[in-house]
């Protein structure tokens, strides 16, 4: 399987080589089992312009030319910390976007993390399900409204286009490639050797509303601020609209256009995010935490939390509070 990884200025080198190195180790393990057979993966790092590229952090990478054909083109993310930087960054990557568009005509394309924005610019997300780094999912949905962005998904394949979640999802994409080519047994062996988690299926446990990257539009920020200040109060769309001097219809339309979700969806994310903080850092019981974020019924809160975080509140506390205490010790 010929895989080309597209490197470009300000790309994240760890995503380029994270995927390449996992597949290299997969080749070595396959060679131990079947020494007479050719390596299953051939990975090359390519560029769209010729000459070396300077990755994020100033690391210079040598790249090869784009091949006439490959079995999969993989697009890593680029360094960016705010929605305001996206326009400037994407405007400089016209050659890369054109290469991606041409490659998609010939075969499958995959993106790691924020590489999904390059696929979006190439028109490959139109009418497709997709994911990206959870912190940028709302911005991806806003920029490419015809895409169905699944912010909690770790890996989404829709036809010939695959997208993956944040940063270390480069490893999850590599494992998925190995699974498709060599099967589950090869993935289990690879995961043991590399200490990778082959059972991850969701970004949901890691979501933190405080770290979401959003457009600098004052309206959506005003909505979010109003909701954050009233987490424990009953939700009222009419009251929210009145506070912002707009109709409920305008409120829903503008907020959805800017964030990719409804105010109620956002409020639930804020409530679960606050509950995560309390589960990690306080000794409050689950009932007390539920009330702190606006739920008198513990069962209702627990169902919402489990749906959003893909684990129960108790399991979340054991996993993340226990980890923090263990590291401190």
Question: Mind sketching the topology for me?
Answer:
Layout: E1 2-6, H1 13-33, E2 42-46, E3 53-54, E4 60-61, E5 72-75, H2 83-91, H3 94-106, E6 109-111, H4 116-121, E7 129-130, H5 137-143, E8 148-149, E9 155-158, E10 161-164, H6 169-182, H7 184-194, H8 218-228, H9 237-243, H10 248-259, H11 263-281, H12 286-292, H13 298-309, H14 313-328
Walk me through this protein's architecture:
This protein is of the alpha/beta class and 329 residues long. 50% of the residues lie in helices and 10% in strands. The chain contains 14 helices and 10 strands. It has helices spanning 13-33, 83-91, 94-106, 116-121, 137-143, 169-182, 184-194, 218-228, 237-243, 248-259, 263-281, 286-292, 298-309, 313-328; strands at 2-6, 42-46, 53-54, 60-61, 72-75, 109-111, 129-130, 148-149, 155-158, 161-164. Strands 2-1-5-6-10-9 form a 6-stranded mixed beta sheet, sandwiched between helices. A two-stranded antiparallel sheet has the order 3-4. A two-stranded parallel ribbon has the order 7-8. A hairpin with a 2-residue loop joins strand 9 (155-158) and strand 10 (161-164). Helix 1 (13-33) packs parallel to helix 6 and helix 11 (263-281) crosses helix 13. The chain starts with a strand and ends with a helix.
């Amino acid at each position: 399987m010929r895989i080309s990884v597209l490197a470009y200025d300000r790309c994240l080198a760890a995503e380029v080589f994270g995927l390449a190195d996992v597949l290299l180790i997969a080749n070595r393990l396959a060679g131990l089992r079947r020494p007479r057979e050719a390596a299953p993966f051939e990975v090359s790092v390519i560029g769209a312009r010729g000459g070396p590229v300077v990755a994020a952090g100033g690391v210079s990478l040598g790249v090869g030319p784009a091949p006439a054909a490959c079995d999969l083109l993989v697009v890593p993310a680029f360094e960016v910390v705010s929605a305001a930087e996206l326009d400037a960054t994407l405007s400089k990557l016209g050659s890369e976007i054109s290469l991606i568009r041409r490659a998609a005509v010939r075969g499958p394309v995959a993106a790691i993390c924020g590489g999904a924005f390059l696929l979006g610019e190439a028109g490959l997300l139109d009418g497709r399900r997709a994911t990206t780094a959870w912190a940028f999912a709302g911005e991806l949905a806003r920029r490419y409204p015809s895409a169905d962005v699944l912010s909690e998904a770790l890996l989404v394949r829709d036809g010939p286009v695959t997208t993956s979640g944040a940063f270390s999802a480069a490893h999850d994409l590599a494992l998925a490639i190995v699974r498709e080519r060599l099967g589950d047994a090869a993935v289990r062996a690879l995961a043991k050797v590399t200490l990778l988690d082959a059972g991850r299926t969701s970004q949901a446990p890691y979501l933190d509303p405080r770290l979401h990257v959003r457009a600098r539009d004052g309206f959506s920020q005003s909505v979010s601020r109003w909701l954050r200040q009233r987490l424990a109060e009953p939700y009222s769309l009419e009251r929210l609209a009145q506070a912002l001097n707009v109709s409920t219809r305008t409120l829903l339309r503008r907020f959805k256009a800017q964030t990719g979700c409804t105010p109620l969806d956002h409020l639930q994310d804020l409530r679960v995010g606050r509950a995560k903080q309390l589960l990690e850092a306080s000794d409050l019981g689950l009932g007390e935490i539920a009330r702190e974020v606006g739920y008198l019924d513990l069962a209702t809160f627990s169902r919402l939390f489990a749906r959003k975080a893909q684990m129960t509140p108790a399991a979340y506390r054991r996993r993340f509070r226990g980890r923090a205490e263990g590291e401190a010790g």
